[in-house]
Design brief:
Blueprint lengths: L3 E3 L5 H13 L5 E5 L6 H5 L3 E4 L5 H7 L5 E4 L8 H15 L3 E7 L10 H14 L3 E6 L4 H4 L2 H7 L1 E4 L11 H14 L5 E4 L7 H12 L4 E4 L2 H10 L4 H14 L10 H6 L6 H10 L1
Parallel strand pairs: 1-2, 1-4, 2-3, 4-5, 5-6, 6-8, 7-9
Helix pairs in contact: 1-8, 3-4, 4-5, 9-13, 10-11
Bound molecules: NADP nicotinamide-adenine-dinucleotide phosphate (NAP).
NADP nicotinamide-adenine-dinucleotide phosphate binds next to helix 1.
Length: 285
């Protein structure tokens, strides 16, 4: 019997990975790691082993990984703390005798100019130096990052960004969860997967599709990086976050979030979700 563990299991991606695993292996083989196990009661009731583990607490990680064969390390969300946190997980996995790790990195890894890339690259290096067998799951952006703000777009008739005419190949969280589950179940190690949607779209195309489905005019308003940062600040984001998102938007216009390898649908064994479907799901609410 192989035991499969998932960190960050209480998060949006983690829960979808658990759902995928439950379709493909016995619940008793699955270990879900969460800071607060009470958040995963529904999975506990389905027979998943829910264990407490905090990226900041090496002892909790060592205890939680006891008996685990294969591990999916879902990157944490504490930007600036993650190299150390992920290092704690990797050390604990080594100590526990984990035989395989899949890590959710960032699309293009060391070639990415995005501000969020260096912590992922640092984690990739920790894995490379660990002696563990691992695969890198370089996740592109979730389609839901773009459909999350549709209520506001429907009200104003405008979608702002600094992407220009660049193409984005996003995938839904469920698509990326399917890829992660596939790697956890059968990844052999030594692979770097660039994981993105099967097809790309521009912000103009995105706005046109929202407009078509919503039945009202909605336009993409392209801005400079600085203008877009001001819009985001005006919407209440702290200035450093607004600057980071505006920079990501501008860089994504130059291919940072585009990939046509189709690694994701190959890994998961099914086509990725078209952006029109993610838009439809968001409009349904
Ligand atoms: N590709 C993209 O578009 C994209 C977008 C956003 C984020 N991400 C990255 O992908 C990851 C998964 O995405 P998501 O949508 O599932 O994010 P999410 O819903 O924010 O989930 C983050 C998960 O990390 C856990 N976590 C945070 N700090 C932890 C700690 N100290 N110890 C243990 N667990 C900790 C959270 O646990 P709690 O439930 O206890 O808070 C949660 O389970 C994110 O954490 C981030 O690294 C990718």
């Amino acid at each position: 019997m192989t035991t499969y563990a998932v960190t960050g299991a209480s998060g949006k991606l983690g829960r979808l990975v658990l759902d995928e695993l439950l379709q493909q292996t016995d619940a008793a083989n699955i270990v879900a790691l969460a800071r607060d196990p009470s958040t995963l009661q529904e999975y506990d009731q389905r027979g998943v082993q829910v264990r407490q583990a905090d990226y900041d607490d090496p002892d909790s990680l060592k205890a939680a990984l006891r008996g685990v064969d294969r591990l999916l390390l879902i990157s944490g969300n504490a930007v600036g703390e993650r190299e150390r946190q992920h290092g704690n997980v990797i050390n604990a996995a080594k100590e526990a005798g984990v035989s395989y790790i899949a890590y959710t990195s960032i699309l293009k890894g060391d070639r990415s100019r995005l501000a969020l890339a260096p912590e992922h690259v640092a984690t990739e290096k920790l894995l490379a130096g660990s002696g563990l067998n691992y695969d890198l799951l370089r996740n592109g952006w979730y389609s839901e990052n773009y459909t999350g703000g549709l209520a506001q777009a429907l009200e104003s008739g405008k979608i702002f960004g600094a992407v220009g005419q660049g193409k984005l190949s996003t995938a839904s969280r469920r698509d990326l969860a399917a890829g992660a589950a596939a790697a956890l179940l059968k990844g052999e190690g030594g692979r770097t997967y660039e994981l993105a949607g099967d097809s790309g779209w521009t912000m103009d195309e995105f706005a046109a599709e929202v407009s078509r489905q919503a039945g009202k005019p909605i336009a993409y308003v392209d801005q400079s990086e600085a203008e877009y940062a001001r819009v985001l600040e005006g919407a209440g984001l702290p200035p450093p976050v607004a600057a980071m998102l505006a920079s990501t938007s501008a860089l994504s216009g130059h291919g940072e979030l585009y990939d046509d390898s189709r690694n994701l649908s190959t890994l998961s064994g099914r086509p990725t979700t078209p952006i029109s479907e993610t838009i439809a799901a968001a409009l349904k609410g």
